[in-house]
Amino acid sequence: MTTLLELAAEKESADVTDWAARLGWVVGLLLLIALVYWLMREGWKWRGTLQSDLPELPAAPTDPGPATLELSGRYHGSTTAGQWLDRIVAHGLGTRSRVELTLTDAGLGVVRPGATDFFVPVAQLREARLDKGIAGKVLAEGGLLIVTWEHGGKLLDSGFRADHAAEQAQWVEAINNMINTTSTTEGTAR
């Protein structure tokens, strides 16, 4: 028994933390995090500068006509068509947001609270499909509605996710039918 008491008496308390060294590490880590965020912001701005040749987004016409389809959900961004990681950030196209889509005979209206709204005239629509990813957002196969459209001589893919995913297939069919009808009408008019 005495040996246990002797061992307990000999024990020293733990070393006191070196607060100056710990505070130095914390400040250094916070500065590193701030630097990384600043570099990311500068990269975003640089990408916008590189894409400055993209013209302003078209605004919706005063009377686009009656709505064929309406959808609410999320806008996940736009990319160069066929390159699902090449995000377009010019004119706010890289900003994720809530979205209200309206399809009319005039085209596709994209209303984004807190971000720039835009309109894609039917003549600029190229394709609609279901896909699994765009601009860093990956879902299950067919989880995103991707609309390909032309703007300023470039083909863009814009990704949307409906609040009710079952609606997306109907949108693909409606947009593609609209594109085919417009192509056929333009072909016979020539």
Describe the structure.
The protein is an alpha+beta fold and 190 residues long. Helix content is 34%, strand content 32%. The chain is built from 3 helices and 10 strands; from the N terminus they run H-H-E-E-E-E-E-E-E-E-E-E-H. Strands 1, 2, 3, 4, 5, 6, 9 and 10 form an 8-stranded antiparallel beta sheet that branches. A two-stranded antiparallel ribbon has the order 7-8. Strand 3 and strand 4 (107-111) form a beta hairpin. The longest helix has 32 residues, at 19-50. It is elongated.
Summarize the structure.
The protein is an alpha+beta fold and 190 residues long.
Q: Overall pLDDT, averaged?
A: 85
Bin the strand percentage: 25-35%
Oligomer: single chain
Poorly predicted segments:
none
SS class: alpha+beta
**H/E element order:** HHEEEEEEEEEEH
Q: How many strands appear in the DSSP assignment?
A: 10
Helix content: 25-40%
Give the secondary structure arrangement, pairings included.
Layout (H helix, E strand, L loop, with lengths): L1 H9 L8 H32 L16 E14 L6 E2 L8 E8 L2 E5 L6 E4 L3 E7 L1 E2 L2 E2 L5 E8 L2 E9 L4 H23 L1
Antiparallel strand pairs: 1-2, 1-3, 1-10, 3-4, 4-5, 6-9, 7-8, 9-10
